Amino acid sequence: MQLFIGGACAGKRDAVRSRFPGACWHSAYDGKALEAWRESLPRQGVVVLEGWERWLAAWLVEEPADDSLRERLRTLLANWRDLERETAVSVLLILPEMGRGIVPIDRAERRLRDLAGWLAQDAAACCEAVWYVRHGLVHRLSADVPTA
Amino acid sequence: MIAFVSGGARSGKSQVAETLAREWHRRHGGRRYYLATAMASDAEMAARIARHRRERGDGWITLEAPVALDEALAGVEAGSTVLLDCLTLWASQWLYGSGLPEAEGGRMLSALLDKARLKTIGLVVVSNDLNEDLPPRDPAVWHYLAFLQRRHRQLAREADRVIEVIAGYPIEWKTSLKNSGKIAWENPWEGT
């Protein structure tokens, strides 16, 4: 697995497109639900999952317990690691960095920000490569060996 | 030389930018210009401008360019030093005060960079990093952020140096790109 993370309009999508031109995309911006990710799987190659702020916001509405949500996300990450072991598919996540502002007054926004941060940590821990995208420039954060 | 310096509020980005500008000036001589995008629209803004001016000290010629960045360079001599502070304000003035089409903003910035290269000007551009907060819900704020980020990506692409400032410390991004870019293109997934 690989993770590309960066702020809004930082150039994450372009960074991924230029590196993985043949990838299949499963995107919330195309109206796709996260749960339907299997529909976008290629026989082999890279599948890109993007639009997490929308998926996470939808999950937050239906599930009041943050710990349960984090556990569900960890299960998904584990599923993708299994998938990579068993098939010729590689999973690439594009995550939004949204934790560098003032603590929001709105509870739903606080939960979204927390969940996005936890997901980024958990995803980074099981990715072979983590890339930080800033103003269109890309910097590799992780070593080659996964930490978990 | 074109340098793009950005960071959070009170990160020390103006001081880092001034240091870069002074280094260029020490090596190349000529005049030092301060390209001010801020307008003293109220007392608070006037006080901010006065504070920045005090911190810069003497020896800077102030040019005011709330919108027309490229025209401001018309009278600047070749080899001079120009410090533009800051692009964030320019972006808001372009979008909400100029009445000019949004797409022209990118061309204006390109024209500024082209003129700076043509005249061998040491140009240092300062801006604020605003895009790592929650995505804005207000469409107008989102629109502004997207416009500013397009300009930031344009600058980062074209600048010779891209520097992030955290707590007064400069982090060189363009140098990092050269290293990490090599790793990216050797990505085993792509076999290249």
From TrEMBL, chain A:
Keyword set, alphabetical order: ATP-binding, Cobalamin biosynthesis, GTP-binding, Kinase, Nucleotide-binding, Nucleotidyltransferase, Transferase
Superkingdom as given in the UniProt entry: Bacteria
Catalytic activity line of the entry: adenosylcob(III)inamide phosphate + GTP + H(+) = adenosylcob(III)inamide-GDP + diphosphate; adenosylcob(III)inamide + GTP = adenosylcob(III)inamide phosphate + GDP + H(+); adenosylcob(III)inamide + ATP = adenosylcob(III)inamide phosphate + ADP + H(+)
Gene3D superfamilies documented for this protein: P-loop containing nucleotide triphosphate hydrolases
Listed pathway(s): Cofactor biosynthesis; adenosylcobalamin biosynthesis; adenosylcobalamin from cob(II)yrinate a,c-diamide: step 6/7; Cofactor biosynthesis; adenosylcobalamin biosynthesis; adenosylcobalamin from cob(II)yrinate a,c-diamide: step 5/7
Catalytic activity, EC: 2.7.1.156, 2.7.7.62
A GO biological process held by the record: cobalamin biosynthetic process
SUPFAM superfamilies, per database record: P-loop containing nucleoside triphosphate hydrolases
Coiled coil regions, renumbered to chain: none
Entry function: Catalyzes ATP-dependent phosphorylation of adenosylcobinamide and addition of GMP to adenosylcobinamide phosphate.
Family designation: Belongs to the CobU/CobP family.
Name listed for the protein in its UniProt record: Adenosylcobinamide kinase
Organism: Halomonas korlensis
The organism's taxonomic lineage, starting at the top: Bacteria, Pseudomonadati, Pseudomonadota, Gammaproteobacteria, Oceanospirillales
UniProtKB/TrEMBL annotation, chain B:
Enzyme class: transferase
GO MF entries: adenosylcobinamide kinase activity; ATP binding; cobinamide phosphate guanylyltransferase activity; GTP binding
Key word Transferase present: yes
Residues that, per the record, bind GTP: 7-14, 36-38, 53-56, 64, 85
Biological process annotations from GO: cobalamin biosynthetic process
Pathway: Cofactor biosynthesis; adenosylcobalamin biosynthesis; adenosylcobalamin from cob(II)yrinate a,c-diamide: step 5/7; Cofactor biosynthesis; adenosylcobalamin biosynthesis; adenosylcobalamin from cob(II)yrinate a,c-diamide: step 6/7
EC number(s) per entry: 2.7.1.156, 2.7.7.62
Reaction it catalyzes: adenosylcob(III)inamide + ATP = adenosylcob(III)inamide phosphate + ADP + H(+); adenosylcob(III)inamide + GTP = adenosylcob(III)inamide phosphate + GDP + H(+); adenosylcob(III)inamide phosphate + GTP + H(+) = adenosylcob(III)inamide-GDP + diphosphate
Database matches in InterPro entries: CobU/CobP, P-loop_NTPase
Listed Pfam families: CobU
Top-rank taxon, per record: Bacteria
Keywords from the named record: ATP-binding, Cobalamin biosynthesis, GTP-binding, Kinase, Nucleotide-binding, Nucleotidyltransferase, Transferase
Active site (record annotation): H52
Family: Belongs to the CobU/CobP family.
Cross-referenced PANTHER family: BIFUNCTIONAL ADENOSYLCOBALAMIN BIOSYNTHESIS PROTEIN COBU, PTHR34848
Function: Catalyzes ATP-dependent phosphorylation of adenosylcobinamide and addition of GMP to adenosylcobinamide phosphate.
The protein's name in its UniProt record: Bifunctional adenosylcobalamin biosynthesis protein
